[in-house]
Specification:
Blueprint: H1 18-32, H2 56-73, H3 90-114, H4 122-139, H5 155-162, H6 176-199, H7 203-223, H8 225-235, H9 237-250, H10 258-283, H11 292-304, H12 319-341, H13 346-366, E1 389-390, E2 393-394, E3 399-401, E4 404-406, H14 408-431, H15 434-444, H16 446-451, H17 456-481, H18 500-510, H19 517-531, H20 539-553, H21 562-568, H22 584-593
Antiparallel strand pairs: 1-2, 3-4
Helix pairs in contact: 1-2, 1-4, 2-3, 2-7, 3-4, 3-7, 6-9, 10-14, 10-17, 10-18, 10-19, 11-12, 11-13, 11-17, 12-17, 14-17, 15-17, 18-19
Length: 594
């Protein structure tokens, strides 16, 4: 058995047999998870059982196994080489750091909650010491790539460089059925990880989950596995889309708690609206700060015609008619607002759209029969919106399907999934069309696009209207899910999404102009506040810090297309070929060819 050799830079610290020590540390951490970590069950998760990890111990166990596999892959063991087609050492470092973070957080949480380190059992100390050994030893592994000549070799720069890895080599093509199975397996794992995060029952477990997922995903990225899966999903786009929809469809069948299914339904609503905003911001490059108002227009329009006893309209349309009403109302507002304002650009357009969002909220607040016509019940909103009943299927009651019980939230989740699929299809088809390419041209340089014959105003108005319509569609379902619509739900910024600031952040966080980016960003921005209720007073502060860090370290977003990666990062390629003198022979050839 020989150690896998890779072109590498110098290690951060000189440590003999660093890989052996890292492997031993990961194994020690793994053993510690099967021992009791505390003596009392007062700490959530019951970490008192020996031989059966639970709660945060499971996260440490998974991280230790991942660290162990990456470390063993570096030995060149047959059958493990596929784990590290990219970097061989940076994944070990990142996985070890994740284990240390999760284990250290758990030990600290136990000490704080139970009143001191005396409440720790030997298992916690074994795992913590093992994690420290693995992390320190991993820092002694060589870097996967040399430090750039233009970067000063400071300790911080060397540490950051040690977490980077070269791009993975191209994998050998597999049969189509094998590649499709890999895609299906990847989405199955993603569904399990996402479901585990939603099902976390206490804040300590969710924080540990966030730490583990963040470091684990980064380690898989540096190892090159994410790049290879991305290549497969790009090659089989239709299969990938079908796999994603099937995984999303299976989610409510994994939930026994109605509250968690409701979180899933709201995530879909938030993600669908963010994807509609991505048409406006990501494709056309129009900064819209009042986009949540279109969601409100669709929700109010549907609430007025859905049979609410307190609706001043006093009619009840079928659901399909209510959906068309909400979408049409949002479309009309999009055209009315966009026609006079889309000749503006940049900050001026942002200010106008921000004003529209506030005007909508103030207007529906004033239509209470006192300050204006009695249309929206003012600040009281339109409550008691009845549940849907489609073809005899009542969305307000539980149903047993194939041995699974689907509650009200699960029913609306599946309905919203249909709307999300429609919006995904619209976004994908429009983005790949001639109109979509014209939107991208306008986003990159409107003046140049106009000079090339593109009618910028007409296409920007089309993007604005399409984005408004998609938001209105989501609003019609949101009105029924939440039972009521009020003006306070549609603010520019607030601690409870969706609002315009969070929607825009979801697009930027996920990746502007991409299909999956806003879906990922929306899921994160909704799930994290929903699970960390104790941090509600500091959500906007933490949200701002997260955006600053994102703009500094990954400005293209979590899911970036090739254009954004080339725009925000050094590529090592010259934009202009070197100026080579033209020889007489070459000049003669050029003239002859001319």
């Amino acid at each position: 058995m020989t150690t896998k050799t890779t072109p590498a830079g110098s290690p951060l610290i000189a440590l003999p047999a660093a890989r052996h020590v890292t492997t031993a540390g990961a194994a020690i951490t793994l053993i510690g998870t099967f021992l009791a970590w505390t003596w009392t069950s007062e700490f959530p998760g019951d970490l008192t059982v020996t031989g059966y990890p639970g709660g945060l111990q499971v996260l440490t166990l998974v991280g230790a196994v991942l660290t162990l596999l990456f470390a063993l892959s570096g030995y060149g063991i047959k059958g493990l080489g596929w784990l590290t087609p990219g970097g061989a050492n940076s994944p070990v470092r990142l996985a070890a750091l994740g284990v240390l973070g999760t284990t250290g957080f758990t030990v600290g949480a136990i000490a704080v909650k139970l009143g001191g380190v005396v409440n720790l059992e030997p298992g916690a100390w074994v795992s913590l010491v093992g994690a420290i050994i693995a992390t320190v030893a991993a820092l002694g592994l060589p870097a996967d790539q040399e430090l750039d000549d233009t970067t000063r070799p400071t300790p911080l720069n060397r540490f950051v460089n040690s977490l980077r890895a070269p791009a993975p080599t191209r994998a050998k093509d597999l049969p189509n059925w094998a590649e499709i199975l890999i895609i299906a397996g990847a989405f199955g794992v993603a569904l399990h990880v996402f479901t585990y995060g939603i099902d976390t029952e206490y804040a300590e477990l969710f924080i540990g989950y966030i730490i583990s997922v963040a470091f684990g995903f980064t380690a898989l990225t540096r190892a090159g596995l994410i790049a290879r899966i991305t290549r497969l999903t790009t090659k089989h786009r239709n299969v990938t889309l079908a796999a994603a929809l099937i995984a999303a469809f299976c989610f409510p069948f994994t939930q026994q708690n109605e509250q968690y299914a409701l979180i899933g339904a709201n995530i879909l609503i938030f993600a669908t609206v963010a994807l509609g905003l991505n048409v406006v911001v990501g494709l056309a490059g129009l900064l819209d700060l009042g986009y949540v108002a279109f969601l409100g227009v669709g929700a109010y329009a549907a609430a007025l015609v859905s049979g609410s006893p307190l609706s001043p309209v006093g009619v009840q349309f079928p659901f399909w008619a209510a959906v068309l009403t909400g979408a049409a109302a949002s479309l009309i507002f999009g055209v009315v607002i966009g026609a006079p304002t889309l000749r503006l650009r940049g900050d001026y357009l942002a200010i106008v759209t921000l004003g529209f969002g506030e005007i909508f909220r103030l207007t529906v607040n004033a239509l209470n029969g006192v300050s204006g016509p009695d249309l929206t019940n003012g600040s009281q909103g339109i409550p008691s919106i009845p549940d849907l009943n489609l073809f005899g299927f009542d969305f307000g009651v539980s149903h047993d399907i194939a041995g699974f019980t689907l509650g009200r939230s699960a029913n609306y989740y599946l309905l919203m999934l249909v709307f999300t699929a429609v919006v995904v299809l619209v976004f994908r088809r429009s983005g790949e069309s001639r109109i979509g390419r014209a939107w991208v041209a306008i986003r990159e340089d409107e003046t140049a696009a106009t000079a090339m014959g593109i009618n910028a105003f007409r296409l920007k108005l089309l993007a604005f209207a399409l984005g408004a319509t998609l938001a209105g569609l989501a609003g019609t379902v949101q009105a029924h899910v939440s039972y009521t619509v009020t003006p306070e739900q549609y603010q520019f910024a607030g601690s409870v999404p969706p609002n315009s600031a969070f929607l825009l952040a979801a697009v930027i966080l996920g990746g502007m102009g991409t299909l999956s980016g806003p879906l990922v960003g929306a899921a994160l921005l909704y799930l994290i506040p929903a699970k960390l209720q104790f941090m509600q007073d500091y959500q906007l502060f933490l949200f701002g810090i997260a955006l600053i860090l994102l703009m500094r370290f990954r400005p293209e977003g979590l899911v970036a297309d090739r254009r954004k990666q080339l725009e925000f990062h050094e590529t090592g390629q010259l934009d202009v070929p070197p100026d080579v003198p033209l020889t007489d022979q070459a000049a003669g050839t050029t003239k002859a060819g001319a």
